[in-house]
Amino acid sequence: MIIKTIKKSACKENEVTPEHIYHQRREFIASSAVGLAVSATSSSILLTGCDDAKSKNSLTTKKSDLSPPPSAQDTLTPYEDITRYNNFYEFGLDKSDPAKHAGNFPSKPWSVAIEGEVDNPGVLTLEDLLKPHSVEERIYRLRCVEAWSMVIPWNGFPLSDLIKRFSPNSNAKYVEFLTLYDTEQLPGQRRPYLDWPYREALTIAEAMNPLSFIATGLYGKNLLGQNGAPLRLVVPWKYGFKSIKSIVKIRFTSKQPRTSWFDKAPSEYGFYANVNPNVNHPRWSQRKERRIGEFRKRNTIMFNGYAEDVSHLYVDLDLTKLF
Length: 323
Prior knowledge:
The protein is an alpha+beta fold. The chain has a single domain, classed as Oxidoreductase, molybdopterin-binding domain (Sulfite Oxidase, Chain A, domain 2, Alpha-Beta Complex), CATH 3.90.420. The chain is built from nine helices and 13 strands. The longest helix is centred in the first third of the chain and has 13 residues.
């Protein structure tokens, strides 16, 4: 007899997904060409506003074994909120600026440079980068340092699948990511909020963790510009600024790379940026959060509720100092 053990953090999909959305998505998947259309746009289930959405491809879509962690009390954040309330300073400082200014953001053609301590460096088109990967669906919380959060059904594939393809060598201790730098397409980069382009990084162990995810879509639609088209990182146990958007370069390094918010304010935005209610931002508490669409606040959960999967990465670290 096989017994399947369900983690405490897990939930059934129909407990978190509004029923009409659940059925619409399943009907869509059953009736449409699913996965990566052969274009440099996205490997999400649907490519909206693009003729390529009608073309067939070789990718299969599967439900991730890791999908659950949001609890039975979590409800998916509506698509309209996910796409209209964003932190993406490349388009402006206000939460509504990305949706206002990203409408013409060109996600094709697109290429990603792979550099550093790897056996297989190079520059790949988005099509070539994504072609070997199967699309998965995962429901993840995204917690922002300003004490708000969302629960998002992402489409994409594990970051570890991508990393293995490039064969990091023994010197690779960190993985650095860079966002596109283009002051015409990203007008916020004309102002010195940060030292552009935006940079983020993970340890190689964090990057290889099964929860680390390359998102190419959400709610069965390809990413919009304000959400990080055509591909972004999702690290669900960390604050949202670690989940870098519109990636154009991945670099493997032996030393801890510079990261944008750590450079800007190291006392406020640490390199690790794990969701930790016991470490306050200098200007506010992190003990409570507000889910978008809700008025009540809820307690912030250590590692955003993913402690069972990631706490082993930090057993030797003092997370009150290395925050």
